[in-house]
Amino acid sequence: MDLAFVLYPEFTALDLIGPLDVLGHQGLVGQEEVRVHFVAATREPVRSDVGLTVTPSTTFDELARADVVVVPGGDVRQALAGGQVSAWLREVHPTATWTTSVCTGSILLADAGLLAGRPATTHWAFRDALAQRGAVISTDRVVRDGKVITAAGVSAGIDMALTLVELIWGERRAQATQLFIEYDPQPPHDAGAVEKAPAEVVDGVLAALGRMA
Questions:
Q1: DSSP assigned state of 196
Q2: Contact 3, 34 (CB under 8 A)
Q3: 69 bridge partner residues
Q4: Percent of the chain with pLDDT over 70
Q5: What confidence tens digit (pLDDT) does each residue in 90-105 have?
Q6: CA nearest neighbour of 9 among 33, 42, 37, 34
Q7: Catalytic residue IDs
Q8: Residues 50, 13: contact at Cβ < 8 Å?
């Protein structure tokens, strides 16, 4: 099984690493052959939004197909302007078994024309941006429509990947993987969704996102 993780400047690290840790370990958990590809416009190292640098193993021109495609979120403006990510997604999606995104990665799927009229989710602060690109917005943490799976903000990528493990290998494998990575979230505050967080906290996060932009 070939897994393709898309890289572009200013991607969000956990959007990539969360699904990678879940899916990349399937060769160990289940003993299947799982090949991980980090695909980008060039083979030059790609810097995340917090400084993590990942070196691509292949390029969009070199990798013509993959069984599973994972598009992380982040500051997608450079990727949208360049157009190479969207063009590659349009090329590989028809033959991929699963095309997935985390957080604002869904905006890149939409830019490629893959979410037109389809239910999808993204980070809560970017729902309008996704809707403007033709998606039908869902507030669910993970949304599956056919062979397209989208996840909400950042940490939801782990949930998406575990959902994908269950779809491919079954419930027991998903449970084993969850235990393998000891994924048992117990956050100190119940403020991880915009519907739950205090209004002043929401305002502060929106202000921070504005400063990032």
A1: T
A2: yes
A3: 4, 99
A4: 100
A5: 999 999 999 999 999 9
A6: 42
A7: 103
A8: yes
Q: Which residues are within 8 A (CB) of 45 and not within 5 positions of it... i.e. 6 or more apart?
A: 53, 54, 55, 56
Given a cut of 70, whether residue 210 has pLDDT beyond it is yes
Backbone angles phi, psi at 102, to 5 degrees: -125, 135
For residue range 31-69, list pLDDT tens digits in order: 778 999 999 999 999 999 999 999 999 999 999 999 999
What are the C-alpha distances in Å from 134 to residues 4, 75, 131, 160? 25, 20, 5, 22
Q: Tokens standing for 186?
A: 């117990």
β strands within 114-206, DSSP E: 119-120, 136-137, 142-145, 148-151
Token pair 């997608």: residue: 76
Q: Which residue has the tokens 């809560």?
A: 124
Using CB atoms within 10 A of its CB, is residue 172 exposed (0-12), middle (13-18) or buried (19+)?
A: exposed
Integer Rg of the chain from CA? 16
Q: Are 19 and 83 in contact (CB under 8 A)?
A: no
Q: Which residues contact 213 (CB under 8 A, 6 or more apart)?
A: 75
Residue 43 buriedness (CB in 10 A; 0-12 / 13-18 / 19+): middle
**pTM of the prediction?**
0.96
Rounded Cα–Cα distance for residues 41 and 82 (Å): 10
pLDDT higher than 80, residue 213: no
CA-to-CA distance for 77 and 212, rounded, in angstroms?
12
Burial of 79 (0-12, 13-18, 19+ CB in 10 A): buried
Q: Are strands 142-145 and 148-151 parallel, antiparallel or unpaired?
A: antiparallel
